Amino acid sequence: MAITAKAFKYGDDINTDYIISGKYKFKSNDMEAMAVHAMEDLDADYYNKVHPDGGFLVAGTNFGMGSSREQAPLVLIHSNTKAVLAKTFARIFYRNAINTGLPVVECDTDQIADGDSLELDLEAGVLRNLTQGTEIPFAPLPPVMAQLLADGGLVEHFKKHGGFAL
Amino acid sequence: MSTISGKTIAEKIFSAHSGTDAHAGDIVVANVDFVMGQDGTSPLAIRALNNMGVDEVFDPNKVALVMDHSSPSPIEGVSALHTIMREFGKKTGCHVYDVGRGVCHQLIPEAGHVVPGDLMVGCDSHTCTYGAVNVFSTGVGSTDGAAAMAAGKLWFKVPDTLRVTYNGELKPGVFSKDLILYLAGQIGADGATYMALEFDGSVIDALSVDARMTISNMAIEVGAKAGLMKADAKTLAWYEGRGEKTPAPVDPDADAIYARELMFDAAAIGPQIAKPHSVDNVSPIEEVEGTPIAQGYLGTCTNGRLEDLAIAAGILAGRKVHPDVRFIVAPASKQILLDAIEAGYIQTLVEAGAIMVTPGCGPCVGTHNGVPSNGENVISTANRNFRGRMGNSNAFIYLGSPATVAASVIEGAITDPRKYFEGGVR
Q: Smaller CB count within 10 Å for chain A: N or C?
């Protein structure tokens, strides 16, 4: 299924402290309440911009560097972020995103400007920049991760198979 | 593809734990020897286990939950999270390290929960710390941690290895923290993404286990999955009296294949400072000397160990913390606090003006124990200086060694600690 939404573009090395600050993440287990603080130290308006209509978070290299906090992908999901598109991702964030069901796409984000309208079809492996009229290629997920995502994340994989079935 | 070539430490540990001939790039499902979570991540892991319909852990003796990041609880919300952890411990019988015991990354090796040759995962990115004692340990998220707690295994991509060799010997006043900050400055925050680091060379051989942990702790700051070292006589001596498990050291093969190799001459490296707001924004201390500071912090999983307290006490003995500086100290564990009391370091530090806080993460994560004010500069022994890290996005965090922090809190400004080591005192 294709998702169409606006691009919200940021730079390189976006760390998990920016995605959700430690001062909030230790307060509770309520991701809905914490989501209003998503990306706050980088862009205080992120939640208000993205939440009403949904959006794609677009970044440069090493997105999600830093801590292992799974609150990072979770608050993005709850802020109505449809997917993160970046040139490269930090390892722990990438796994956490797949495990929690936030699509992550490694692609050349130089071809996307802030505010562009994008269409992403993960199953078909197609990313279109509707504003610029271009198609941006991206590599498919590694097979293990594709299987986890197809099962609905790691929790659902476990429920379905009673453990790891990779 | 399997070849006749030798293996790195990472490839050997993954081979042994997956029952396969594992090489870099392979995906394996491997048995884990231990799983850990802290108070910022365990509650989500427990929720994931509940969602999986799992109400026990694969082996209660191989799982630990640690309350260290926001401990003792500063607010009601955290108190509730701590309660969830305590109740999980009672239900499953796993280890629970409650308020005041210390930082997870000190407690886990200190208790002998992991030994050389082991594979472990922790729901905290600095789980890479135990690479210093030859454990392949890596940080994962709460859902991965939950799966590992339930099944005793997890899937991994066997990483390529970047080998870093430090030759020569450290100059007086220069410490392991300076070596790892220097590396971060050289290769950048994503210089080793998806890779394992292997640290080697005469400088590593000469370091204590405490000092080695400082280096492995910060492997994640260059994106690495692990920061491995060989186990030597010092490592094995360190493990004496720490639990029942028998170390099974893993050395790399002489013909192991490395994705990249770097060599540094330690004699050319002086005290290093990571400037705001990223760990790879590193410069020699000379470039930032004299920068005024309002707060100093000695502690964390990077530099809260006995040797770190000893270095700071050595500099502060008979001296005073600058009146405009708050100097906060958090020993990495209760045991370290006791050892430091016995050695007299705590007396020295407090007499000099230090403020002692509970063994644990202290103010590092911005939840309590010393949130800086707007516009203030902080000099810290921690591993991260991201904007907002200590709870105020309008503060500026500089990272350095315990010696640099001690020298700086005396002057009220970033200060080169080498003047305290002239004549080869240390």
A: N
A95 contacts on B by Cβ (under 8 Å): 140-141, 144
Give this prediction's pTM. Answer: 0.96
The per-residue pLDDT for range B110-166, each reduced to its tens digit, is: 999 999 999 999 999 999 999 999 999 999 999 999 999 999 999 999 999 999 999
Question: Domain-by-domain residue ranges, chain A?
Answer: 2-140
| Domains parsed from chain B with CATH numbers | 9-158 (3.30.499.10), 275-420 (3.30.499.10)
Q: Is B290 exposed, middle or buried, given 0-12, 13-18 or 19+ CB atoms closer than 10 A? A: exposed
pLDDT above 60 (res B425): no
Residue A5 Cα, gap to closest chain B Cα (Å): 28
Dist CA A44 CA B177 (whole Å): 34
pLDDT at B424: 45
- CB contacts under 8 A, B 184-213 vs A, are 189-190, 193-194
Give the CATH fold of the A2-140 domain. Aconitase; domain 4 (3.20.19)
Distance from the Cα of A28 to chain B's closest Cα (Å) equals 5
Record: contact A66-B386, CB cut-off 8 A: yes
ipTM of the complex: 0.93
pLDDT of B13 strictly over 90: yes
Q: In chain A, what residues touch B123 (CB-CB under 8 Å)?
A: 68, 70
Categorize the per-residue pLDDT at B426 as very low, low, confident or very high, splitting at 50, 70 and 90.
very low
Which helix (H) or strand (E) segment holds residue B28: the answer is strand B27-31
Give the pLDDT confidence of B84-113 residue by residue, as tens digits.
Answer: 999 999 999 999 999 999 999 999 999 999
pLDDT digits 0-9 by tens, A36-85: 999 999 999 999 999 999 999 999 999 999 999 999 999 999 999 999 99
pLDDT digits (tens, 9 = 90+) for B56-82: 999 999 999 999 999 999 999 999 999
Q: What is the 3-state secondary structure (H, E, C) of chain A?
A: CEEEEEEEECCCCCEHHHHCCHHHHCCCCCHHHHHHHCCCCCCCCHHHHHCCCCEEEECCCCECECCCCCHHHHHHHHCCEEEEEECCECHHHHHHHHHHCCCEEEECHHHCCCCCEEEEECCCCEEEECCCCEECCECCCCHHHHHHHHCCCHHHHHHHHCCCCC
Contact criterion met (CB < 8 Å) for B365 and A41: no
- Give me the residue from B40, B153, B225 closest to A91, CB to CB: B225
Please compute the mean of the pLDDT values over residues B171-196 and round it to a whole number.
Answer: 97
**Residues 280-319, chain B, touching A (beta carbon < 8 A):** none
Contact A23 B387 (CB under 8 A): no
